[in-house]
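Usage

Read records sequentially. Each one opens with the input sequence:
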Amino acid sequence: MAATVNHRQHRHTGRVFTLETENVTLDNGVTIDIDVVRHPGASAIVPLTGTGDVMMVEQYRHAVGGYIWEIPAGTLDPGETPLTCAKRELIEEAGVSAAEWHKLGEIVPVPGYADERIHIFLAAGLSPAEQHLDADEVLQVHEIPLEDALAMIGRGEIQDAKTLCGLLMTARHRASQT
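and closes with the structure output:
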């Protein structure tokens, strides 16, 4: 069953998301107000080189106070498919295009307050393309062996949820191919 939405109030429209407060009655009969971030969704890419390296970005994220390790990713444009978004973002952020694409899955990173879904793809058969960073993207691209990236997770050096999931999904996918 699902909660019954009694009414909804728009609070804010930002560049990427909107904020609403919904008054809902839960299945247990309790009625509460819940703040919900409405997000158009995103795609994230694990670009894998022919030698097994992952192209990762070390990107400045103001909300967390510094640079963090991530896989390339971006928000879906209106009417854009997740795969089209992934192809665009890979070129824009990493400066490469891919001949092979495999959807690894989807994640819901913060279901307690947002409806965002991130589609995660594995990209291979990479070739150089012209990087087109957005004005607010401050990042450096690094090639890191997949095993080293997985070790970075264990050491707490990678904390971004989509990156953790993407790298672990890639390791599992590769293991299933052998």
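Summary fields computed downstream for this record:
- Strands lie at 4-13, 18-25, 31-38, 42-47, 53-61, 66-70, 73-75, 96-107, 118-128, 139-145.
- The chain has two domains: 4-38, 42-177.
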